[in-house]
Amino acid sequence: MTATASPSDTKSAAKSAAAPRISFVSLGCPKALVDSERILTHLRAEGYELSRRHDGADVVIVNTCGFLDSAKAESLSAIGEAMAENGRVIVTGCMGAQPEEIREKYPNLLAVTGPQAYESVVAAVHEAVPPAHDPFLDLIPPQGVKLTPRHYAYLKISEGCNNRCSFCIIPSLRGDLVSRPAADVLREAEKLVKAGVKELLVVSQDTSAYGLDTRYAPSRWQDREVRARFYDLAKELGELGAWVRLHYVYPYPHVDEVIPLMAEGRVLPYLDMPLQHASPSVLKRMRRPGNQEKQLDRIRRWREICPDLAIRSTFIVGFPGETDAEFEELLEWIKEARLERVGCFAYEPVKGATANDLGLPVPPEVKAERKRRFMAAQEVVSLRLQRAKVGKRIPVIIDEVGPTVARGRSKSDAPEIDGTVHVASRRPVRPGDIVTVKIERAEAHDLHGLAV
Ligand code: SF4
C-alpha cells in the first residue's frame, strides 16, 4: 500500500508560513501505516506542515516495507525518487532494520531508522530541520517534564521483560522486552545533562538484557554507530560527564564487562542487582534469570578489579516452600558476600503470579522472624563497611540543603533507596553540587561529615 500525506488546510498553512514542511511516503502494511500516522501526528503537533510534493519540502520521510523482495524494490525506488527530487531524505520502517542495504545504494541519506523507532525519526527530523518556535510548546523544556529534582533523572532504556520469575506479573502487564535504540537513549541523556542533570539513573525491568530483542541493533550517535548493548551503552553514557548509575542489572556473564568501566570512573562503581535469594533450589522455584551459581567468586573478582564497587540487592524471605536450611543458606551467603546495600521483603503472593501454585506457604510469623534475622545479620555487615569509610574523603552529591546541614549521597547511594550523607559545610552548597566530604561518623545506613 502506498500513501502520500495530504497537505494541511490553507488556514493552517497561512497561519505558519515559516513552518518547516515535511513530505511523507508511507509504504507497506497497516502496521506501517499506523507508524506513519504516529510520526506525522507527533510532527504536526510540533508545528511541522505537510507538503504534497517532495520538491517543496524541507525534508522527506520514507517509511519503507521490507517484507518481500518486490516491497524492498518499491521502497528503494521511493527513496531514489525522494533523493532525486529533494535530496534531504530520512528512511524509516521495516527496511530500516537493515540499514547497510539502503546506505549502500544511497549513502547520502540524512538518517536510517528501524521500525517503531518513532523517537529516532522525530529526532532525525529535528536535526535536519528544527521545529518552528511555538509559544505554547516551547514552555516545555527540551528534556521534557521531570518529576525528579533537577540534578538527577531516571533514564529508561527498555520496557517489558523476557523473564518469567514466578513471583512477578510484570511481563504479563508490560509484555516482552522492547529496547530503545541506543541513539535515542543517548540523545535523551545528553538533553538531560545539558539541562543540568548531574546523575543519570539507568532503569528498566532487566537492564543487562538491553538490546537482546533488537539483536543489539546499532544506531547512529554523533559520528559513530552504537550498538544497543549493555556495555556499549554504559560506555557511551559514561562520556556525557554525569554520574551514571546502573539499576536492575541481573548477573548475566557479560555484566563482568562493565566492571572495568567502573574502575576507570566512567560509570559509578555501583550495581543494583536484585538477587532475591542465594539458595539454588529457591532460585529455581523463583525462576530467576542470570547465572547465580558461584556468585560469591564473581563478586570477589569484581572487587579485585574495582575495589570501590558498591552492590545493592534485594532479597525475599519466606518464599513458598523456603525451608529452614534454605533460609540458613541465604543468611550465610549474605554474611560472606558483604553487600553494601541490602533490602529484604517478606514474601507476599501477587494475584496472577505462578508462585501461587507452588503451595507450601511459609507461616507469617516465620516470615517475620526470618526477615528480622536477615536484617540483623546485614546490619552487622553494613555497619562494618560504613565504619571503614570514617576518615576518608569522598565525593558527595547534594540533594537538599537544610539550615545547618545538607543531605547528600555518596557514589554508593542511589536516591530514595540507599543511605544519606549528612554534610556540614562552612560555605554555601546547592542541590546538585558535588562536594568532597571528610567522613567523621558512620551509622549502618548514613554517614556524617564535613565538606572540605
Ligand atoms: S522480577 Fe523477573 S519477570 Fe519480573 S520484571 Fe524482574 S526479571 Fe522480569
UniProtKB/TrEMBL annotation:
It is an enzyme of class 2 (transferase). InterPro entries: Elp3/MiaA/NifB-like_rSAM, Methylthiotransferase, Methylthiotransferase_CS, Methylthiotransferase_N, Methylthiotransferase_N_sf, NA-bd_OB-fold, Ribosomal_uS12_MeSTrfase_RimO, rSAM. The gene is rimO. Coiled coil: none annotated. GO terms for cellular component: cytosol; ribosome. It comes from Methylorubrum rhodinum. GO terms for biological process: tRNA modification. This is Ribosomal protein uS12 methylthiotransferase RimO. GO terms for molecular function: 4 iron, 4 sulfur cluster binding; aspartic acid methylthiotransferase activity; metal ion binding; protein methylthiotransferase activity. Its cofactor is [4Fe-4S] cluster. Residues 20-130 form the MTTase N-terminal domain. CDD domains: Radical_SAM (cd01335). [4Fe-4S] cluster 2 binds at residues 161, 165, 168. It is found in: Cytoplasm.
